[in-house]
């Protein structure tokens, strides 16, 4: 059987996407996260029970496990999807937007003393990103990994949305902002966002590194995102002050 190159549509992305074997998230299991947090003296109560997370995965994926799955990435999934994928395409999802409203106080890229900030997918005028196609035979393992990472807490909903690519429209799984979760703070001022990105740090790295990685990928794909570039410029200006 001939396997096509997953990067055949966008060979320029090959050096920018972390290989599965080198991904920190390749073994991102809730028990591992709990252990890391306890070592740092951080709370673990925010981590969803395994049974709840698995029940949601079964419900959302019901009737879909026998065919390939597209997954929409707009943030860290773009450069570190941590799943085995058969194809990646640039995509545009209408009706949603990339917004810096995910406040991290749980230790990933921020703490209670120095909260970090990352992007979440919220309602809006459309969002450019990537879609990854997961082969049907890999779905059990790969959707488990996706849920363990994206639904470890309550910040997101799992839902399907429409994504447009140069090779046609696809239905893609996406993890979108849950406004009932305390981590989602949609009323942050620009100055608050800058401060959180400038100071947030945790076991996943810094909030600054997160937005820098995002900016690199958007630039490589010739995607303009005024909010990302303004935030990054202002964070760097504050750091240099």
TrEMBL record:
<dbReference type="InterPro" id="IPR036568">
    <property type="entry name" value="GGCT-like_sf"/>
</dbReference>
<dbReference type="GO" id="GO:0061928">
    <property type="term" value="F:glutathione specific gamma-glutamylcyclotransferase activity"/>
</dbReference>
<dbReference type="InterPro" id="IPR013024">
    <property type="entry name" value="GGCT-like"/>
</dbReference>
<dbReference type="GO" id="GO:0005737">
    <property type="term" value="C:cytoplasm"/>
</dbReference>
<dbReference type="Pfam" id="PF04752">
    <property type="entry name" value="ChaC"/>
</dbReference>
<protein>
    <recommendedName>
        <fullName>glutathione-specific gamma-glutamylcyclotransferase</fullName>
        <ecNumber>4.3.2.7</ecNumber>
    </recommendedName>
</protein>
<dbReference type="InterPro" id="IPR006840">
    <property type="entry name" value="ChaC"/>
</dbReference>
<keyword id="KW-0456">Lyase</keyword>
<dbReference type="GO" id="GO:0006751">
    <property type="term" value="P:glutathione catabolic process"/>
</dbReference>
């Amino acid at each position: 059987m001939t396997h096509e190159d997953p990067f055949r549509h966008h060979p320029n992305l090959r050096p920018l996407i972390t290989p599965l074997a080198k991904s920190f998230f390749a073994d991102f299991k809730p028990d591992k996260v709990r252990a890391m947090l306890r070592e740092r003296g951080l709370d673990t109560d925010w981590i969803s029970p395994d049974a709840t997370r698995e029940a949601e995965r079964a419900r959302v994926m019901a009737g879909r496990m026998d065919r390939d799955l597209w997954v929409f990435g707009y943030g860290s999934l773009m450069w570190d999807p941590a799943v085995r994928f058969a194809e990646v395409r640039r995509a545009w999802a209408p009706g949603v937007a990339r917004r810096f409203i995910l406040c991290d106080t749980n230790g990933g890229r921020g703490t209670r003393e120095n909260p970090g900030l990352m992007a979440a997918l919220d309602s809006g005028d459309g969002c450019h990103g990537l879609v990854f196609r997961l082969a049907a035979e890999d779905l059990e393992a790969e959707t488990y990994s996706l849920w363990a990472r994206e639904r470890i807490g309550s910040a997101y909903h799992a839902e399907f949305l429409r994504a447009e690519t140069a090779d046609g429209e696809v239905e893609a799984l996406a993890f979108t902002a849950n406004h009932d979760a305390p981590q989602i703070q949609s009323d942050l001022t620009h100055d608050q966002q800058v401060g959180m990105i400038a100071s947030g740090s945790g076991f996943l790295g810094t909030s600054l590194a997160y937005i820098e990685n995002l900016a690199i990928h958007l630039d490589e794909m010739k995607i303009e995102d005024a909010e990302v570039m303004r935030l990054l410029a202002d964070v760097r200006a504050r750091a240099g002050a």
